[in-house]
């Protein structure tokens, strides 16, 4: 890249080391990858060690430190995409382009690979072409895409309808039918003042919508009371949970309410600055959101002296780059500071030591939108909706085997059966209650209620009918977590990888009951020993699926005896080739035979009962 | 559970003078650090030796493992010999324990897994610096062939318990073994369980 | 792997093969094969290093500061030596032609500690069983431990500076003791 262009990008980001990730994302978008020279130039310009720049560049899966082709095609690989046939489509595209998945074509033109759920489960299968979302893939689209790539047509000139993303709102309640004008909620809040708003939030008993359900009033109050040079509001729009896409819809069609919510939160905690951390997969929303923020500044709804009330609050949008872990609030803050998204050691919690070490409140998109609604309608009104412990409504992202996938807003307390009924599910075998990281319900549990006190959810409802193989669902989840573990703590880094390998072992028909026991042990270990929520929740769904759909696993246990995870003799292939050996010693026999042989050997050895180790040993040394 | 196997071995008549448990240890693709850490239990080896006797171990000169109660495996599986030794241990030991990071997940030697074995051999024996004229990849039939990748031991045989750490501390090994010998399922608390 | 194998370049019909496999009490995996004739005359002895790990290749491309910690895992018996060797290599890489006196002293201290510890280990755990009780015995092992335990008990009562308490002083003492016991090695010749 020309130095002038690089200078331009650096200048626009004020050479701020905290904006490192944003700089790298821009460079990646321009060049298609981040060459070593670029990383060095960025390091020098920002006054950072090269290692710092490299660690960020190599952490995020949408940043490439090796050439990845002019066209980088990433198929969304959530289980819902799989159920819609994404693998066949990927193979088809690879076939037409003469390349292998995961590798760059020899001419450096194109690479095709998979990525974690892109949040298009209601209109999949989906993919990202150079970071731009394409939905509703079908064989014809794949044919044409291969054609366009070979003719080197820029992604921006591909048929516009490919990039169309539907909202698919199927059921509206108080939030999706709010009927408020942009800024209306903010005006009411500014009029009432911070204390009054905090009171309303407390009366509403609003709990965080990300899934953990922490009380918003407690979070806001502790942040407000924490000492600091500045306070910050962060809107967590990094919805990475497989199967969830509600934030996509809120940002696309209810953005003003979200921004009002952020401004209200800012006023309540005494912040003048907010960030929206937008997941890289939703890059297509960025320009639209930036434009709307600019309009709001002009309308006096954002920036200096909002609505003439003397309150100043501005918002910056930061992009993520394909890391599920950044949905964890302290990892998100790390990422916002330009570093790899690895969760911090807590305490201290972000409400006292967050962004730049200052008091920071991190809220889900939906939580902020609801806060805006509460500011207008009042806490008591909100509390009357839902159940006593789970007030208000919840947006549910429903996908999988249903007639009408999309967004459903239901008051808390609704049963799973009602949700399934509304979505047109039939012959349902299983449902995830909170994506890959939450419990998986079987048919006899569909009477349970969606609420923090029963089935807690972040909103990801993936539905599987009786035709689906639940083993493949669990395997997909295991691979998802193995890919998304940040690598910071060993239980999660190794545990997720072990689980993925055990699943592959079962899939390759090498499974035994031992492997299922191992997964159960790993579940207990990771729940207790992982550093953050990712590790703690990574095995919940898998453990549930193994317990509730055991026949799907037992079908794959071909041997009551333990079996090795790989073909031992084949594992010597490279060494045989390199040494030119083919003698009996250059081969390894079947494990079961060998084991039987060893056992017989052991029995024989046991018979003469060696009188003492000292005597028996030398004779063993000297083999004739 | 493994500790039940151990209890099986103590017949009612022998209860008054419990038979010494037999312990075998081996280092596969490890560095011996876990064995060193095991020796770090120092003088506690004495009470331990009242309860157990050693079969095959790098500390004794017994070359083949006989029927044992407890087998401790250090190191992952990197070549054909490791596979044979590991199978011998599995066939002979009632309880098999993966001791240390390499046995549990391949450890540092598994760093070679992202490289092709052929390229590594080529570099080390043919194209690397400081090699003698005409160096070639050793092909003597006495030598076991390396596997394409380094594997954790549980991918080759069934493992009953895992004791992580690089190495696990002497205290951890002591606590683990004493619990096992007492017939309990070993469980280490936060102070003893670590992964680095 | 071939357990019973004849690989001498010499005609092998009348030769007997003795294999010491594995060689114990060393780090690294080795075996020795000996070919003897009917009169027990040795025709060939070979030491086989049976393990290949590829450290020299897979440390390439790693961040340089990781390498000293990685190469420690070459050998758990003498990790310090490998650590220091890698540190010296890094000195060259980062252009530290002369290290500070403090660094030099710390390195020496580490190395001497390793030597002491290694001697104690060698004596108590690795060679005393052979010296005192011959092949295959774990009794020697026990005796050495008894001696060592005795020393530790005495040390508990001694007035040792805080920094050297515990394992440190035990290892130092053990090191001295093992140096003295090295004399036993000579006894062999008079047998």
Count of domain modules of chain A: 6
How many DSSP H or I helices of chain C? 7
Q: Could you state the order of secondary-structure elements of chain C as H and E? A: EEEHHHHHHH
What is CATH's topology name of the largest domain in chain A? Rossmann fold
Radius of gyration of chain C: 22 Å
The number of domains of chain C: 3
Number of helices of chain A: 26
Give Rg of chain A in angstroms.
27 Å
Instruction: Please name the two chains that share the biggest interface, counting residues whose Cβ lies under 8 Å from a Cβ on the partner chain.
Output: B-C, 52 and 49 residues
* Average residue-wise pLDDT of chain A: 91
Walkthrough of the structure:
The complex is a heterotrimer of chains A (624), B (196) and C (191). The termini of chain A are far apart. The longest helix of chain A is centred in the C-terminal third of the chain and has 18 residues, at 490-507. In chain A, the strands form three sheets. Chain A has a six-stranded mixed β-sheet with strand order 5-12-11-15-13-14. A five-stranded mixed β-sheet of chain A has the order 8-9-7-6-10, sandwiched between helices. Chain A has a four-stranded mixed β-sheet with strand order 2-1-3-4, covered by helices on one side. Chain A is globular. With 624 residues, chain A is of the alpha/beta class. With 196 residues, chain B is an alpha/beta fold. Chain B is 32% helix and 18% strand. The longest helix of chain B is centred in the middle third of the chain and has 13 residues, at 80-92. Chain B is elongated. Chain C folds into three domains: 16-49, no CATH class; 55-98, no CATH class; 104-191, no CATH class. In chain C, strands 1-2-3 form a three-stranded antiparallel β-sheet, with no helix packed on it. Chain C has seven helices and three strands; from the N terminus they run E-E-E-H-H-H-H-H-H-H. Chain C has helices at 55-58, 67-72, 79-94, 101-133, 139-157, 167-181, 184-190; strands spanning 16-20, 30-36, 42-49. Chains in contact: A-B, A-C, B-C.
């Amino acid at each position: 890249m020309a130095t002038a262009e690089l200078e331009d990008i650096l200048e626009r980001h004020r050479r701020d080391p905290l904006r490192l990730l944003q700089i790298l994302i821009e460079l990646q978008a321009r060049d298609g990858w981040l060459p070593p020279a670029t990383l060095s130039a960025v390091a020098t310009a920002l006054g950072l060690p090269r290692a710092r720049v490299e660690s960020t560049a190599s952490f995020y899966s949408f940043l490439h430190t090796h050439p990845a082709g002019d066209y980088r095609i990433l198929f969304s690989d959530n289980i819902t995409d799989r159920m819609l046939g994404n693998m066949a489509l990927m193979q088809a595209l690879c076939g037409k382009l003469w390349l292998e998945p995961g590798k760059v074509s020899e001419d450096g033109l194109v690479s095709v690979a998979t990525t974690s759920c892109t949040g298009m489960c209601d209109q999949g299968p989906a993919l990202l072409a150079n970071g731009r979302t394409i939905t509703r893939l079908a064989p014809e689209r794949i044919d044409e895409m291969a054609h366009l790539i070979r003719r080197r047509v820029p992604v921006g000139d591909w048929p516009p309808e490919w990039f169309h993303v539907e909202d698919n709102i199927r059921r509206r309640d108080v939030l999706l039918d709010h009927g408020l004008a942009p800024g209306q909620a903010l005006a009411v809040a500014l009029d009432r003042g911070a204390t009054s708003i905090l009171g309303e939030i407390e009366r509403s008993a609003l709990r965080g919508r990300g899934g953990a359900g922490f009380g918003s009033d407690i979070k806001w109050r502790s942040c407000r009371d924490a000492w600091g040079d500045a306070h910050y509001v962060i809107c967590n729009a990094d919805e990475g949970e497989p199967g969830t896409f509600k934030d996509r819809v809120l940002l696309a069609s209810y953005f003003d309410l979200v921004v009002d919510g952020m401004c209200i939160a800012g006023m309540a905690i005494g912040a003048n600055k907010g960030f929206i951390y937008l997941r890289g997969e939703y890059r297509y929303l960025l320009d639209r959101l930036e434009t709307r923020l600019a309009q709001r500044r002009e309308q006096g709804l954002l920036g200096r002296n909002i609505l003439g009330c003397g309150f100043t609050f501005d918002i910056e949008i930061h992009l993520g780059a394909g890391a599920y872990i950044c949905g964890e609030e302290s990892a998100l803050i790390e990422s916002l500071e330009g570093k790899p998204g690895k969760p911090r050691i807590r305490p201290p919690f972000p409400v006292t030591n967050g962004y730049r070490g200052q008091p920071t409140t991190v809220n889900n998109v939906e939580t902020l939108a609801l806060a805006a609604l509460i500011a207008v309608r009042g806490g008591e009104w909100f509390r009357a909706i839902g159940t006593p412990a789970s007030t208000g409504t919840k947006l549910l992202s429903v996908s999988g085997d249903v007639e009408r996938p999309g967004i459903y807003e239901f008051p808390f307390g609704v049963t799973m059966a009602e949700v399934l009924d509304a979505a047109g599910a039939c012959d349902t075998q299983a449902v995830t209650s909170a994506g890959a990281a939450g419990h998986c319900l079987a048919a006899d549990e569909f009477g349970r209620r969606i609420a923090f006190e029963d089935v807690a959810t972040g909103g990801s409802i993936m539905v599987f009918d009786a035709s689906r193989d639940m083993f493949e669902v669990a395997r997909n989840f295991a691979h998802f977590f193995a890919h998304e573990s940040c690598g910071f703590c060993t239980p999660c880094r190794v545990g997720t990888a072990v689980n993925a390998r055990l699943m592959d072992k079962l899939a390759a028909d090498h499974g035994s009951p031992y492997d299922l026991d191992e997964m159960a042990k790993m579940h207990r270990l990771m729940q207790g020993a992982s550093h953050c929520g990712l590790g703690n929740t990574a095995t919940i769904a898998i453990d549930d699926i193994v317990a509730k759909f055991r026949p799907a696993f037992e079908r794959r246990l071909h041997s009551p005896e333990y079996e090795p995870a790989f073909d031992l003799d084949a594992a010597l292939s490279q060494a045989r080739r390199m040494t030119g050996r083919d003698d009996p010693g250059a081969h390894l026999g079947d494990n079961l035979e060998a084991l039987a042989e060893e056992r017989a050997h052991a029995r024989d050895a046991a018979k003469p009962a060696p009188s003492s180790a000292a005597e028996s040993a030398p004779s063993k040394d000297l083999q004739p | 559970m493994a500790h039940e196997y151990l209890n099986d071995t103590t017949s009612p008549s022998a209860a008054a003078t419990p038979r010494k448990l037999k312990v075998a240890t081996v280092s596969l693709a490890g560095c011996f650090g876990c064995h060193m850490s095991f020796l770090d239990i120092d003088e506690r080896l004495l009470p331990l030796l009242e309860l157990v006797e050693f079969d095959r171990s790098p500390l004794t000169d017994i070359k083949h493992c006989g029927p044992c109660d407890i087998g401790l495996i250090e190191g992952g599986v990197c070549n054909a010999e490791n596979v044979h030794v590991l199978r011998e241990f599995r066939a002979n030991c009632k309880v098999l324990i993966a001791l240390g990071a390499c046995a549990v997940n391949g450890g540092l030697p598994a760093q070679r897994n992202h490289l092709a074995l052929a390229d590594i051999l080529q570099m080390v024996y043919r194209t690397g610096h400081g090699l003698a004229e005409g160096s070639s990849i050793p092909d003597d039939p006495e030598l076991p062939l390396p596997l394409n990748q380094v594997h954790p031991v549980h991918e080759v045989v069934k493992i009953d318990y895992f004791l992580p750490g690089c190495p696990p501390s002497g205290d951890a090994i002591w606590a683990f073994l004493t619990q096992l010998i007492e017939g309990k399922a070993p469980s280490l608390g936060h102070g003893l369980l670590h992964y680095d | 792997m071939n357990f019973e194998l004849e690989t001498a370049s010499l005609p092998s019909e009348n030769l007997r093969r003795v294999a010491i496999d594995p060689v114990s009490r060393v780090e690294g995996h080795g075996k020795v094969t000996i070919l003897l004739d009917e009169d027990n005359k040795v025709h060939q002895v070979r030491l086989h290093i049976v393990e290949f790990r590829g450290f020299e290749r897979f440390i390439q491309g790693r961040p340089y500061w990781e390498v000293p910690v990685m190469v420690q895992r070459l050998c758990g018996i003498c990790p310090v030596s490998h650590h220091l060797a890698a540190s010296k290599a890094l000195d060259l890489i980062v252009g530290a032609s002369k290290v500070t006196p403090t660094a030099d002293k710390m390195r020496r201290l580490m190395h001497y500690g390793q030597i002491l510890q290694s001697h104690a280990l060698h004596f108590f755990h690795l060679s005393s069983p052979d010296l005192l009780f011959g092949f295959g015995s774990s009794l020697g092992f026990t005796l050495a431990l008894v001696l060592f335990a005795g020393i530790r008990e005495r040390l508990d009562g001694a007035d040792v500076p805080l920094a050297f308490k515990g394992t440190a002083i035990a290892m130092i003492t053990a090191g001295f003791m093992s140096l003295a016991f090295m004399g036993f090695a000579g006894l062999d010749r008079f047998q």
